[in-house]
Amino acid sequence: MKTLDQIAAELQGYDPQALSAGQVLDFLSRLVAPVQDAVSLPLFEALGRVLAEDVVSPFDVPPHDNSAMDGFAFDGGRLVPGAALELRVAEGTALAGKAWQGSVQPGECVKIMTGAIMPPGLDTVVPQEFVKFHESADGTRISIPPGLLRAGDNRRLRGEDLAQGLPALRKGETLTPARLGLAASLGLPTLPVWRPLRVAYFSTGDEILSLGEAPREGAVYDSNRYTVFGMLSRLGCQVIDMGVVRDDPALLEAAFTEAAARADAIITSGGVSVGEADFTKAMMKKLGDVAFWRIAMRPGRPMAVGRIPPASGQAGNPNGAILFGLPGNPVAVMVTFLAFVRPALLQMMGAGAAPPPLLKARSTEAIRKKAGRTEYQRGWVSTAVDGSLQVKTTGSQGSGVLRSMAEANGLIVLHHAQGNVAVGDELDVLMFDGVI
Ligand code: AMP
Ligand code: MG
């Protein structure tokens, strides 16, 4: 386990007072480590969890060559270029789940349904709608017009989806609906996943009201509690909700040490800006190995990061819980969460996913932007009349204005070196897509 100073020494040009977004991500990826604690869960409980081991296919999928169409199975070797092929239809039908019993004579075909096992010796299926029927003395015959098929058409090969013994799913993959279905198709009732990350959250600040408290002049309701709860839940974390903690050293110390004993990570909001007259920063410094940063970004400049050990004699990770001390402003909380906390938590969850791809969309407006910091603007991406993607900002971009966040479907990322934006410029957008 490295101290913050050791990590800082590894980074080129580390200046806690002027970090770029890229440096923050680099620092955090060196600070956090996956929680290596696997459990086995039934499929219904495994959605959204991260696989702790490769899942190896216990058999070939599909287990037999089978038909991809309703039609007639035949020997593709009999096809002659430029000529129609006539075949006698054998008795019976090959059904999905009920193999055709019998042996095919030369010049015969077998009526077959989608998913049915290919009768021995037959490798090609002609879809029903391609054939002409006629009755003859020896029964029904079909005629396949020339030029429609090649040998092997409309047949799914044994093992073409998944070969026995090869990984069907990889360690570090998050279990999506498709991956759950794939695991089920392999007959696996349970899956090995990492235990959920436990993340404790509390808001700080004497002006913060909990819901249910009477309004008071100068006080605001605690919205960060709910945005953080929502973002952590979407990520599949176990949220330890600790409400609002008053600006009182004893209360803050008790909250931090309880969080460090119960959680893998602690998120706080408020009290990390320069010139804060509260005890939050002092308590972080007293209890743990914590750095206070100023990040070249907007919104969300101040942030505290570090590790807080559980109090002696208390349970918890002896290495300490990772601390993310976020600024207080509601949009700054969401942006710093999305940009920095989320990738770090995913790494702690053992998720190997690449960062989500940025979407390219043309700006419908000019945007002022200073080079030398990363700006995140709340945006709405839509389809223009010509079918291309366009993006506009959603109103006031003040770091406390949640309304423009609530109206957005993505964050426009104006990169560190980027300057002013003109109408029609192509911009990068980080889509929310149910993530936040
Ligand atoms: P701070 O980072 O503590 O200086 O807070 C910056 C601004 O965010 C102040 O206007 C606070 O009132 C506001 N703020 C801090 N915490 C919260 C919260 N939990 N919910 C809503 N607003 C908050
Ligand atoms: Mg404050």
Chain-wise SSE layout:
Elements: H1 4-10, H2 21-31, E1 38-42, H3 43-46, E2 55-56, E3 66-67, E4 71-74, E5 85-94, E6 108-112, E7 124-127, E8 132-136, E9 139-144, E10 155-156, E11 167-169, H4 177-185, E12 190-194, E13 198-204, E14 208-209, E15 220-221, H5 224-234, E16 238-245, H6 249-262, E17 265-269, H7 280-287, E18 289-294, E19 297-298, E20 302-308, E21 321-326, H8 330-348, E22 359-363, E23 374-383, E24 389-393, H9 402-406, E25 410-414, E26 426-431
Parallel strand pairs: 5-6, 13-16, 13-17, 14-15, 17-21, 19-23, 22-24
Antiparallel strand pairs: 1-12, 2-11, 3-10, 4-6, 4-7, 5-9, 8-9, 18-20, 20-21, 22-26, 23-24, 23-25, 25-26
Helix pairs in contact: 2-8, 5-8, 6-7
Bound molecules: adenosine monophosphate (AMP) and magnesium ion.
Adenosine monophosphate is lined by residues 203, 205, 207-208, 220, 222-224, 269-271, 273, 276, 327-330, 400.
- Report the top-level CATH class of the largest domain: Alpha Beta
Q: Summarize the biggest pleated sheet.
A: 6 strands, mixed
Structural shape: elongated
* Coarse structural class: alpha/beta
| CATH H-tier superfamily of the largest domain | MoaB/Mog-like domain
